[in-house]
Amino acid sequence: MSMRPITQQISCKASIGWNSLNGIFVIYKPALIHFLSVRETIIKNICKDLNKMNVRPPTDYVVIEGNTNENMNVTVRPNYADDPLVVGPRYQERDITFSTANLLKPDTCGVLICGINHGNSLIHKIRESKPARCYRLKGILGQATDNQFKTGKIVEKSTYEHVKRFHIDKICASMQSSHQKKMFELCGVDIQSQEAYELAVQGLIRPADSRIPVLYEIKCVDFQPPEFTLEIVCINEYEQYLKTLVHELGMEARSTATCTQVQCFKYGLFDLQHALLSKKWDMYSILDNMRLCRKILKENDYLIEQTSPTLIENNK
Questions:
Q1: Any idea what DSSP says for residue 96?
Q2: What pLDDT, on a 0 to 100 scale, did the predictor assign at position 4?
Q3: DSSP strand pairing (310-312 vs 133-141)
Q4: pLDDT tens for residues 229-269?
Q5: DSSP secondary structure string, 64-88?
Q6: How confident is the model at residue 53 (pLDDT cuts 50, 70, 90)?
């Protein structure tokens, strides 16, 4: 989407750009980069773009001199205490507040939902609504590492020629079935009962305890031995949990497997097509993306629809 008329306007006056920087936007976080590095880069780029605009000039220093019982002289002088050469740029990194709905760890790449300034309150609401996340996991058969990821040291090698596509599909179906059974067990209902059916038709069952990972769907979308790709839909996941899924799949296949990529390709309503690449982490692109995100949320009534999910109460 284009915002040329608005960006042309804010290129003249920094205050207009600053007042527009309140909302959420979506970026693509590369792998092997820490979130804090991403945050620092974005904030620096925004401050740099703002300070290149027409910023507020230094205020004048008014001096009243003379005897109080006579006519006094009023003199206007340059106020060096308000000069950017003394106090620094008008817009500085500490002026910007920044948060994310889904904190991606260093080894994970993909969609990252960010909020800036007043948009942080919206980020909190999105996080609390517990939207489903979609991941693409790539793995390689025949080897295992000490950290279950490609960056680790290989500690075991095994054969994989006996592993076929239907083996992977069968294991994925078994994993998905066991997780679905676990969801209903946490609710205290029989998966074969009418109560379980009524619970399921209400939508995704979300755990009340945010520490419990729930796997809704897992399937193999590509198999080119020794490499394979899984797509999963889950909630409350964490990076090591996703790596462990690949490791467990290798063991179930009577082999070994190591995760080579963890990519979040969808978070709630936002997916890869909405995300800004690192070359677009500038203020103008972010403002364009904010408008797109507002439109998506408004069209889908996201916050209204998602704020009352079915929760799993842990009865154990």
A1: -
A2: 44
A3: unpaired
A4: 999 999 889 999 999 999 999 999 999 999 999 999 999 99
A5: EES-TTSPPEEEEEE-GGG-HHHH-
A6: confident
CA atoms within 13 A of residue 266's CA, in its CB half-sphere: 11
Q: What is the 3-state secondary structure (H, E, C) of 120-156?
A: HHHHHHHHHCCCCEEEEEEEEECEEECCCECCCCEEE
DSSP string, 171-191: HHHHHHHHHHHHHHHHHT--T
How much of the chain is in helix, strand and coil states, percent to nearest 5?
A: 40, 30, 35
Beta-carbon contacts of 214 under 8 Å, excluding residues fewer than 6 positions away, are 179, 182, 183, 205, 206, 207, 234, 235, 236, 312
Banded model confidence at residue 64, pLDDT cuts 50, 70, 90: confident
Q: For residue 212, what pLDDT is reported?
A: 83
pLDDT of residue 66: 77
The closest of 18, 11, 19 to 90, measured between CA atoms, is 18
- Eight-class DSSP state of 89: -
| E strand or H helix at 6 | helix 4-10
